[in-house]
Amino acid sequence: MINCTVFNLQGTAIFSLYNVSGKIEIQTENWPSGVYYIQQYINGTYQTDAVVKIDK
């Protein structure tokens, strides 16, 4: 099971998934342009899992 949170560059959590297993799909069509960090909560700390850049 995975706890996953997406943060923007300002460090604001904008999207969270909890107790997810398997493939994670996040719909980003309506998000503003920018860079987002997808982080997993592992052993009490957030660890960056991916960086997503959205250009409009």
Could you walk me through the main structural features you see in this protein, from its secondary elements to its overall organization?
- This protein is mainly beta and 56 residues long.
- The protein has one domain (2-22, 31-54).
- Helices cover 0% and strands 61% of the residues.
- The protein contains no helices and 4 strands.
- It has strands at 2-8, 13-20, 34-42, 45-54.
- Strands 2-1-3-4 form a 4-stranded antiparallel beta sheet, with no helix packed on it.
- Strand 3 (34-42) and strand 4 form a beta hairpin.
- It is globular.
- The chain starts with a strand and ends with a strand.
- The model has no long low-confidence stretch (mean pLDDT 83).
Assembly state: single chain
Number of strands: 4
Structurally, the number of domains stands at: 1
Fraction of residues in β-strands: over 45%
Q: What's the end-to-end separation, in Å?
A: 33 Å
State the order of secondary-structure elements, H for helix, E for strand. Answer: EEEE
The tally of helices reads 0
Instruction: Estimate the mean pLDDT confidence.
Output: 83
- Shape by Cα distribution: globular
The biggest beta sheet is recorded as: 4 strands, antiparallel
Computed structural class: mainly beta
